[in-house]
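User: Just a sanity check before I run the rest of the batch. Below are the structure tokens for the first item. I only need the designed sequence back.
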């Protein structure tokens, strides 16, 4: 049992925080005792990140009282989050001087330099880089490593700082199944190293065994706090994590497309395609046909080549030239422009989401899909407005049309971006990790919406995931990256269309 006379590691009393004129935290009373390990649980928009920002010192304009123990003031807080990774990569992009270098390549901040911060490498550095399997990437720039590798890099840097409190924001996000298991094991070992843990979790299933206490947040307020089993059995918490799904509506009629497609043949075809970078083979002899009536799940571990494959079919990768790649009946390199290709795709990925222009209404975000722009810079009229409203209604979002996009939870923003991707009736809906960063409720929302689209339109889905475990029911083709002696090989398998799928 915790000694009642022991000074709390930290304590919050009546803490409130306003972010962009909206309440992010409301009257938080919470005490973190030494020896405890907490999970802050809640859906997107609950206030978890705001709480972490206050504890880590990144948010200072709050009201109420925050007290820290001597240990916390001395050793500090290490906060590992996705925004940290994004800021580091953005800084390197701004400082990139490739065009002035003889080798035309600027690696930027390397994994080694970020972890060490100018300190010499010691046995602990080597132990953790071996433990997390990142020794082979120590010389790479941060912009050139996978999501999983970035999370491991930031975790090692935090561990070497020896903080009194380690805060991890959704540490399993974007990781393949094997890496998730490895990360779970590492997290469960940290309490034995004398470190206090605070994990921000969107799902009950993501809470590791080492966590002893849970703080549940909803709309910025604490609804339960205490021992793990007690909080997870609370009816209010169970209702919070599994709310009912709103009804869907009929899809709008297809939008007039400014192009035609061949009457037969696959939409995409890659034959014997290989791609190398700096002598490293990323794709090796890939053969894939994406035929009519197919909905494909592209799966594989972090860093296997999924992003490279997608860039070949969307026109973003110059290495498609000179290879046997046919897109929408046209051999790549036959004179078509990148925009001829892109107009046939509707896309969602995390980078698009994080970079989307600020200060827009939800309706404007959806309308921007007509122009494939991050922001809205073109004239638009009643026809586009009505179609955007119809797509919001189809996905159960009609009441959000006049809301500020910035004010929505991360999960609802992702749903709005799905409406944006569909507003021009694309031939292919390309979803790159569309559930990344979402709580369980919003994952169910987006997977259900994808199935709704697949069943009631002629749009075909390419769903990219780090594992095959989470995908929409409409999937009837699997493209898997599987480990082999030379790296990864691609296998493709088809199944019959399921009930309710258009053929």
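Assistant: Here's the designed sequence for the first item:
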């Amino acid at each position: 049992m915790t000694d009642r006379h022991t000074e709390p590691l930290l304590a919050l009393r009546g803490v409130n925080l306003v972010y962009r004129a909206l309440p992010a935290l409301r009257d938080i009373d919470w005490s973190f005792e030494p020896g405890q390990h907490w999970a802050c649980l809640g859906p997107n928009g609950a206030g978890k990140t705001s709480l972490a920002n206050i504890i880590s010192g990144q948010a200072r304009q709050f009201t109420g009282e925050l007290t820290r123990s001597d240990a916390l003031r001395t050793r500090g807080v290490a906060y590992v989050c996705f925004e940290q990774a994004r800021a580091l990569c953005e800084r390197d992009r701004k400082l990139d001087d490739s065009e002035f270098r003889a080798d035309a390549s600027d690696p930027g901040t390397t994994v080694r330099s970020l972890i060490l911060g100018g300190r010499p490498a010691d046995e602990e550095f080597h132990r953790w880089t071996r433990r997390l399997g990142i020794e082979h990437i120590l010389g790479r720039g941060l912009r050139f490593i996978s999501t999983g590798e970035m999370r491991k890099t930031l975790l090692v840097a935090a561990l070497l700082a020896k903080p009194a409190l380690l805060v991890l924001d959704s540490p399993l996000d974007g990781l393949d199944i094997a890496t998730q298991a490895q990360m779970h094991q590492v997290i469960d070992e940290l309490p034995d190293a004398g470190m206090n843990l605070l994990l921000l979790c969107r799902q009950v299933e993501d809470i590791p065994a080492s966590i002893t206490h849970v703080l549940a947040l909803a709309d910025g307020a604490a609804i339960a706090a205490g021992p793990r089993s007690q909080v997870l059995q609370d009816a209010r918490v169970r209702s919070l994590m599994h709310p009912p799904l709103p009804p869907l509506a009929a899809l709008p009629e297809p939008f007039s497309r400014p192009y035609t497609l061949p009457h037969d043949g696959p939409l995409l075809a890659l034959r014997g395609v290989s791609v190398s970078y700096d002598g490293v083979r990323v794709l090796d002899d890939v053969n894939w046909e994406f035929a009519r009536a197919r909905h494909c799940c592209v799966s594989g571990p972090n860093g296997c080549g999924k992003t490279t494959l997608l860039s070949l079919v969307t026109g973003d990768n110059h290495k498609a030239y000179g290879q046997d790649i046919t897109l929408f009946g046209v051999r790549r390199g036959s004179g078509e422009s990148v925009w001829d290709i892109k107009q046939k795709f509707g896309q969602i990925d995390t980078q698009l989401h994080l970079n989307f222009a600020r200060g827009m209404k939800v309706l404007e975000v959806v309308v921007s899909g007509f122009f494939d722009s991050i922001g809205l810079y073109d004239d638009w009229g009643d026809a586009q407005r009505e179609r955007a409203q119809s797509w919001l209604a189809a996905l159960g979002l009609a009441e959000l049309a006049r809301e500020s996009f910035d004010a929505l939870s991360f999960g609802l923003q992702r749903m709005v971006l799905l409406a944006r991707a569909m507003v021009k009736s694309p031939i292919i809906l390309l979803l790159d990790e569309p559930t990344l960063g979402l709580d369980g409720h919003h994952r169910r929302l987006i997977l259900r919406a994808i199935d709704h689209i697949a069943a009631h339109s002629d749009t075909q889905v390419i769903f990219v995931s780090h594992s095959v475990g989470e995908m929409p029911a409409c999937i009837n083709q699997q493209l898997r990256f599987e480990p082999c002696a030379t790296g990864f090989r691609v296998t493709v398998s088809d199944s019959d269309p399921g009930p309710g799928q258009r053929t």
